[in-house]
Amino acid sequence: MTSQVETKEKVLQAAEALLGHPDTKVKTTARVVADYLRGLAAGVDEFARAVTPEGSAFARIEFKLSRFIASDRAYAFKRPIRVTVARDNGYFVAWSRFLVHGTGDTIEEALRDLMAEWQRHYERLVAEEDHLAPPLEKELATIRRLLAKEQDAA
Amino acid sequence: MPLDLRDIERALESKLGFRREEGAKHKLFSLYIQGKLVAETKTSRGSGYKTLGEHLVGEMAKQLFVPHQFFVEMVRCTRTRADFLRFLSKRGRIPREKLNEES
Question: Cβ distance A56 to A106 under 8 Å?
Answer without folding.
Answer: yes
